[in-house]
UniProtKB/TrEMBL annotation:
Molecular function GO labels: ATP binding; hydrolase activity; RNA helicase activity
Entry's localization field: Mitochondrion matrix, Mitochondrion nucleoid
Organism: Apatococcus lobatus
Residue span of region Disordered: 1-129
EC number of this enzyme: 3.6.4.13
Top-level taxon: Eukaryota
Name of this protein: RNA helicase
Length: 818
């Protein structure tokens, strides 16, 4: 089911959940009668089959989220994941359907335990040829985690002879029955239990949050140690850490929780009352406790609006800059520190902490909402209406604990921001700015084609193929040297290319770029030349939006540059009227009508706890469809997250937290090598095996366009590894410093590759198609591309099958869209 923001918004929405019973109610009743919790007919609940008895033991159907390989798992992309759960394998018994009562342990056969330990076969690999094969080759030598299934006989003995009531009734001097080896063995069993993602997910079904589970599992270990009897010691001594043993310990853990953590479970249950997202500003009590002041700096590109905000931030005792791009965060980090104001840099892939710092510069998703500051800046505020990332701007607008918040952007979001501020009881001061230099349309176009470009020109194209083709044509037909900038290049490489273009003595005086120049770089551009005003988005040709045209064209004629005015034109003269029309649209005429929204992590976690056995894609889709959102907001698109979640279904042993972290990883899903790398890392993590980087930069810089593409992919995979290393236990991602060294080397080689890039040409041809063919490009760039078409990218049958599934999903969506 495709999520539609319009369907998810509006003053009217689905009713809150409240008509069903939750598993914990039935379990609690079997131990202590009616639950002692506040009554509420609106509490979110779910019906489950009847739970049977075996003597004094209860037998439960596996009704929790982690009870199958489809278990959803989430961690916030917006929160600290240092507490992300370690995981162990998911028991085969956990794959039973909700409607089936859990059979006795005797029905568990040895063959099912063997199947749970069976690992997928790995295809032969050539580390010298395949990026992903290099990763596998670099990590296969790491020690594997313990996932041995408990002996069925021993588990049966524990199930038959030991009950919670018997343990509870024992005298509290169990340590007398524990020798040193017994104590270590008990610790190992409880370590496997408490680190199991499957068990953590099952705990959600009885309203045990991750925080409560962490504390309670340790206290449960102390309880068993204190209440140890010779019979219990004998039964435990025969067990081995693993999924089957974890299930039996969980049978004892449930009544323990109802006995000693009743209040905590009841409190968490009350919280899970509704999926109501209509008042998201109430999610941030720290910000609501303050009387914040907003200052909206509204103006076009090259109007000085961000400069004024930065001056205010740097003059404050403490400050925070929040921007949409790593490149912007890096620019502010460098500029702030150069002015003697100590500033940290925090992005998804990088942390630069300056001793004694009082300021921070970060990407919007990384903003810390728990650290009060005097002055904050939210840059490009109009992106609050972005269909994919708008939620991040809504989050910082409503949740930043800052006395004074400067909003920078065009004027399109003024009314929306004023409305949101009014709901929070806060006010907005509007400051309007005009361009420092005039911007005109060059109606003549580019007479003479690409060979007529002049120093200071920037040709804007919307595909990598077009950018390299135009570079080849200009350098083949003229004496100009060309710099290139596009989103696939690392931020450091883009900055280097910008410096070369801005330096009048470098010899580089022409720039070919994508819409990546619209934000984050100060460039000495005389004239912006659009190759086209159309681009491909998700397989469909669309017109470039008015806001994007104005932002890109506005890069021409920067203040303090060599040019007193800026010019904009099109290669295709038929498109010049459209360009003129877009530039004439007044700032106030542009509208950002709605703010993007997504739930916070704890809301998704609680919601998932109500859907036992549901896969993460189903949880996300259902939440998006049924959450209550008023007309001010829209539910951001999560197609990419859901797509990755579907691929991750085959990986067992990931907790709710873990699975969602991997789904939020910053990768291009069109790149099979990156998808394969993510799946490989997820599988290694599910096995609790060390994930060494296993990659090195090549010995020489690339000399071809294809070589550049491979090196860019390598950079992105190393960046992915670093992103994951900041969200999972550092012990599983060893030698982060080496990864940074590899990245630095890759950036140096990309810089050298762009200087020495050899694109063969037939003399000084002015035929772009001829140049494209000689450059190794296809005559027509595909609008969509199956990731299977990229050869030699998959390191195992497991990854190949996952990639094929992703390709099939894309094909089905494409057919539906047409």
């Amino acid at each position: 089911m495709e999520l539609d923001a319009n369907d998810a918004s509006g003053p009217e929405g689905p009713p809150p959940y409240g008509s069903q019973a939750h598993p914990s109610d039935d379990l609690r009743a079997r131990y202590e009668g009616p639950a002692q919790v506040p009554s509420s007919s609106t509490l979110p609940r779910m019906s489950v089959p009847d739970l049977g008895h075996e003597g004094n033991r209860w037998t439960r159907p596996v009704t929790t989220l982690a009870s199958s390989v489809h278990a959803p798992a989430l961690v916030t992309s917006r929160g600290n994941s240092s507490n992300a759960a370690n995981t162990s394998g998911v028991s085969p018994r956990s794959k039973r359907k909700l409607s089936q009562p859990r059979p006795g342990l005797a029905s568990q056969t040895a063959s099912s335990d063997a199947a749970s330990r069976k690992k997928p076969k790995t295809a032969p690999q050539d580390a010298s040829k395949h990026v992903i094969a290099s990763i596998v080759a670099g990590t296969n030598s790491a020690a594997g985690g313990t996932d041995a299934a408990a002996d069925d006989t021993a588990v049966q003995e524990l199930a038959a002879k030991i009950s919670f009531e018997q343990i509870k009734a024992a005298e509290g001097k169990g340590y007398r029955h524990l020798g040193p080896q017994d104590a270590v063995h008990l610790q190992n069993l409880m370590k496997s239990f408490s680190n199991s993602g499957a068990i953590r997910n099952q705990a959600l079904a009885i309203y045990a949050s991750n925080e409560v589970f962490k504390e309670a599992s340790f206290q449960f270990y102390k309880f068993l140690r204190t209440k140890m009897t010779p019979e219990l010691r004998g039964a435990l001594a025969q067990l081995r850490p693993g999924a089957a043993t974890n299930d039996q310990l969980f049978d004892l853990f449930v009544p323990y929780m109802f006995t000693y953590y009743n209040d905590e479970l009841a409190s968490y249950k009350v919280i899970v009352s509704t999926m109501d997202l209509r008042r998201p500003h109430l999610w941030y009590p720290r910000a609501r406790a303050m009387k914040r002041r907003f200052i909206y700096h509204a103006g076009p590109t090259n109007s000085g609006k961000t400069y004024e905000a930065l001056q205010a931030m740097n003059a404050a005792e403490s400050g925070l800059y929040v921007g949409p791009l790593r490149l912007l965060a890096m620019e502010v980090f460098d500029e702030t520190n150069s002015q003697g104001v100590y500033c940290d840099l925090i992005t998804g892939q990088e942390r630069k902490l300056v001793p004694g710092s009082s300021h921070s510069s970060c990407t919007v998703e990384m903003a810390n909402l728990n650290k009060p500051v005097d002055v904050a800046i939210i840059d490009e505020i109009q992106m609050i209406g972005d269909e994919f990332r708008g939620w991040a701007w809504t989050r910082v607008l409503q949740g930043l604990p800052a006395q004074e918040i400067h909003l920078c952007g065009d004027a399109s979001a003024i009314k929306l921001v004023e409305q949101l501020a009014s709901e929070m009881g806060e006010t907005v001061e509007i400051k309007r700015y005009e361009r420092f230099t005039p911007l005109h349309v060059d109606h003549k176009g580019l007479i003479g084609g690409l060979q007529a470009v002049k120093a200071g020109d920037c040709i804007v194209a919307f595909s990598r193929r077009a950018i390299y083709t135009i570079k080849a044509v200009i350098e083949a037909c003229t004496d100009h040297k060309v710099c290139i900038i596009y989103g696939g290049l690392p931020p450091e490489t883009r900055r280097t290319q910008a410096r070369l273009f801005n330096d009048p003595d470098s010899g580089y005086n022409i720039l070919v770029a994508s819409d990546a120049i619209g934000m984050g770089l100060n460039l000495n551009i005389r004239r912006i030349i659009f190759q086209t005003l159309h681009k491909f988005a998700r397989g469909t040709e669309v017109s470039v939006g008015t806001s994007a045209i104005k932002q890109i064209a506005g890069r021409a004629g920067r203040r303090n540059s060599a040019y007193s005015q800026g010019l904009a034109t099109c290669i295709n003269r038929k498109e010049i009227p459209s360009l003129q029309e877009a530039l004439e649209v007044a700032q106030d005429a542009m509208k950002t009508p709605h703010a993007g929204i997504l739930p916070e992590w704890d809301q998704l976690e609680r919601f998932a706890g109500q859907l036992p056995g549901q896969a993460l894609p189903a949880v996300l889709t259902r939440f998006g469809a049924e959450a209550r959102i008023d007309g001010t907001f829209f539910f951001c698109q999560q197609d990419g997250v859901i797509e990755l979640a579907q691929l991750l279904e085959r990986i067992e042993g990931l907790s709710l937290n873990d699975r969602y972290i991997f789904c939020l990883a910053p990768i291009s899903r069109r790149n099979i090598q990156m998808v394969a790398a993510l799946l490989h890392y997820a599988k290694r993590y599910s096995e609790q095996r060390a994930i060494a980087l296993g990659l090195e930069a090549p010995a020489e810089a690339p000399t071809t366009v294809g070589g550049m593409a491979q090196l860019e992919t390598l950079h992105q995979i190393v960046s992915l590894w670093l992103w994951l290393s900041f969200r999972f236990p550092e012990a599983l991602f060893p030698d982060r410093e080496h990864a940074f060294e590899v990245l630095e080397t890759i950036v140096e080689q990309l810089d050298e590759g762009l200087r020495e890039l050899s694109i063969p040409t037939a003399g000084r041809s002015n035929n772009p198609d001829a140049i494209a063919r000689l450059s190794g490009f296809k005559s027509k760039e595909p609008t969509t591309r199956s990731i299977i078409e990229l050869p030699d990218a998959v390191a195992s049958n497991f990854l190949l099958e996952a990639a094929e599934r992703l390709a099939a999903q894309r094909s089905q969506r494409s057919m539906r869209s047409h």
